[in-house]
Each structure stands twice: as C-alpha cells, then as structure tokens.
Design a protein that fits this description.
The chain is of the alpha/beta class. 21% of the residues lie in helices and 34% in strands. A four-stranded mixed beta sheet has the order 1-4-3-2, covered by helices on one side. The radius of gyration is 15 Å and the shape is globular.
Length: 131
C-alpha cells in the first residue's frame, strides 16, 4: 500500500514546552502514541508512521502569540470510539480541563459526530471524534 497522501508529521512550536509535554504525553499516550524523540527544546510522539512534534518557541518569536482563530492552525482532530471519548471526557474534567461547547457535548460537531472538544495549555483546540 502506498503512503502517498498520508500525513507524515505535524510540527508545532509552543510557548511552554514543559506544560505541553505534561498535557500531550498524557493525551497522546491515551491515543496509543509513544515518545519517538526528545531533545532539550522539543519532543515528538509517534503512532505507526505518523508523528507529532512540539518545539519550544524561542523568546524572540513569541510575540504576538498564538490564537487558534488567527490565520494558521485551528485544531487537531483524532479518531476515537464513543467509549474512549466518554473516558477521555471524564479524565479531562478530573484534570480541570475545560470542555469546549459543553452545552452541545457530545454532539457539538453535529448529530452525525460524537465528539469532545478541549484545549491544550497553549489553547490549541483538540477534537476527539467518532464518525
């Protein structure tokens, strides 16, 4: 089977690498990712042939700061079953992480999509969805 067109990796520069590692190690671990590479200013997590990289933004590049509604990346979405979505939702609440669109949860993306939306420490939106 060809890999043409499949996502190879995503690299995201972050304001606080320590907080990012704490959050994403937990979440991506729950999704089946493992630490792939780690160095002083970054970390990557891998699942099969796809990996996600987080790199500490240098101070000189931190302004004006990230906001998901500006031009650029809005959110990352991951496939999951309904049971895992319910488990992660419970764990998010236990960790004090706000569920986005909670008044419409778990159908915030519409009736055909069972999902949970939340934000990482940098306020990057994350979606876990079962279609």
């Amino acid at each position: 089977m060809t890999k043409a067109g499949r996502l190879h990796h995503v690299e995201i520069y972050v304001e606080d690498l320590k907080a990012t590692i704490e959050f994403w190690s937990w979440f991506l671990g729950r999704m089946g990712y493992t630490v792939f590479q780690q160095w002083d200013s970054g970390i990557s997590y891998k699942l099969e042939s796809t990996y996600i990289v987080f790199v500490q933004t240098e101070d000189r590049h931190k302004e004006p700061g990230y906001h998901r509604c500006q031009s650029g990346l809005n959110h990352l979405a991951f496939h999951a079953g309904k049971e895992l979505i319910d488990t992660i939702t419970f764990e998010l609440k236990a960790r004090g992480i706000t569920i986005l669109y909670e008044e419409r949860h778990p159908y915030a993306a519409g009736e055909g999509c069972y999902a949970v939306f939340f934000e990482d420490p940098m306020r990057l939106k994350v979606e876990l969805c079962a279609y």
